[in-house]
Amino acid sequence: MTRFPTHNKKLKDWVNRMAKLCQPDDIVWIDGTDAQKAALEQDALTRSELIQLNPEKLPGCFLHRTAVDDVARTEHLTFICTRKKHTAGPTNNWMAPRTAYRKAKAIFKGAMRGRTMYVIPFSMGPVGSRFSKIGVELTDSRYVVLNMLIMTRAGEAVLRQLEKEDNFTKCLHSRAQLDINKRLILHFPEDNTIWSVGSGYGGNVLLGKKCLSLRIASYLGLREHWLAEHMLIMGIEEPNGHIEYIAAAFPSACGKTNLAMLVPPEGLKVKGYRIWTVGDDIAWMRVDSDGMLWAVNPETGFFGVAPGTNSGTNPNMVETIKKNTIFTNVLLKADKTVWWEGADGEIPADGIDWQSRAWKPGAKDANGKPILGAHPNSRFTAPIVNCPSASFRMEQPHGVPISAIIFGGRRQHLAPLVYETFNWQHGVFAGATMASERTAAQVGELGQVRRDPMAMLPFCGYNMADYFRHWLNMGKRMARPPKIFHVNWFRTDEKGEFLWPGFRENLRILEWILDRCNARVGALKTAIGYVPYPADIDMTGLNLDAGALEKLLEVRNADWLEELKGIKKFFNQFKRSLPPELWQEYKTLQERLKSHE
Ligand code: OXD
Ligand code: MN
Asked: Which end of the chain has fewer beta carbons closer than 10 Å to its terminal beta carbon, N or C?
């Protein structure tokens, strides 16, 4: 008979019921102590679930490999399960709760036989803050437990909190048979419940992250008047010592993590800028008594993409992942350190690739394609406290006040480097119409646009039309709403070369954004919004080709009129649910574009 370290009846009953379904051999409660963590690591090493990395070069670090067909979020197997289909909206996969529970139960049944069920009480946000949310994840994966200990505040303190409050998200996970045909990632916002089965990949199984902190939290935010967003949060300490905070949403692979912890470029460093990283992926934002929007990062770790991470693209992350980090699906080198495509240093002469095969550079597969050492979506899980730029405000329950919200996409031609929207409603339109193009590397799909409103398309836990309305309403609740901007680091010239160097140089644009927030510079009014005068961007130490900045800032009305066609098609799918304010923004933009033609 299980001993429960809690008096919370709801929790006890639920753990009992789930144990009856999954039939684990035993149940272990995660207390968050170092001793328990060390024992779990040992257990995982013995069972080859983890590989210990070089203790001198990478202390406290491990490598894990997932199944070959379990390397990324499976959006087609991810469902929002609400009583009415309309609640999930046209952009989500929907399943009726009864069907979803029935299908998943068949897979969960007896799935933990011969295994241990771990009970992880965790808090998203500081424990006990009224802005935080508690979850309890039941899992049969030690890898999940060890990752959750990095990504969330987990253990005893959360259980104590659950003696005082009853509300928690019920998260059930089993690897089951890791069978892609028996894999389901189910969200029941109306029951505050998440069920994930058949996967061992982070985004599907670290249920505090995308599942709770975005899909379930976005639904809770709608009811409780706050925003759960797929955004980085960073502080920019200005030369006068004042720190301004911004939140920014970009679709995957647009550099959110790199921006969140950038190191100022030499030319600007002399001014005394310093960056404070609050978060790289998720922002929970509320209106405070001062009428401003305040943001917290509910997580305590980074679950970042390894390939491309190096001292040039992200020196702070290179420091962060030198200790106490779990690497997933990267290449293992002979000296028990790790490597990935685009890492620092020499390409290793050999190694063991992410599929456990002997690897040499230049190796090709049967189709003549290079065999990668690390999977393109290989990851590291690292504590934020390791990051040299980690904010000292991480534990503050109110978080940080947001001066600017930035939306961005990857557009070769359309969007200028930066523009400021006219007001909150126009800013919501800019967010709702965000999009990215496929890169030139993908032959045949060049220029294909994927709409990803607020970078939330895969993460919004309810109808996106209601989500847009919620954003509009939030604007009305604020006396001092943040200004909303749009950036595009990816504009190219006629030869397809990037016009803007990106990475740390992006601080030059953030500087302009903060100047606008503080009414320190003027701007050119165009049909799409305010665009900088080139002279207002500090280019000290950066030599672009003559005329490049002008090209980066150009607004071509004909291109935007063409863009409106795609926006119309996207909006139409929401039928009459789309807030009329967004059609109004569409029409006034069209008029402005035509009158400026
Ligand atoms: C992530 C994602 O892993 O957005 O953060 O997919
Ligand atoms: Mn993300």
From this structure: N
Of the listed ligands, the closest to the CA of 78 is 1
**What pairs with residue 338 in β-bridges?**
332
Active site residues: 254
**CATH number assigned to the domain with residue range 9-49+71-224, chosen from the 4 options 3.40.50.620, 3.40.449.10, 1.10.340.30, 3.40.50.300:** 3.40.449.10
Tokens read off for 503: 């990475």
Span 457-493, pLDDT tens digits: 999 999 999 999 999 999 999 999 999 999 999 999 9
Q: Is the pTM of this model over 0.90?
A: yes
CATH topology for 301-386? Answer: Phosphoenolpyruvate Carboxykinase; domain 2 (2.170.8)
The Cα-based distances of 468 to 140, 464, 582 in angstroms read 38, 6, 8
DSSP 221: H
- Helix, strand and coil percent figures for the chain, each rounded to 5: 30, 20, 45
- Interstrand relation of 400-408 and 293-296 (parallel, antiparallel or unpaired): antiparallel
Task: Please give the helix or strand (H or E) that residue 202 lies within, else none.
Answer: helix 202-205
Task: Enumerate the β-bridge partners of residue 139.
Answer: 118
Nearest atom of ligand 1 to the alpha carbon of 459: 4
Distance 252 CA to ligand 2 centre (A): 6
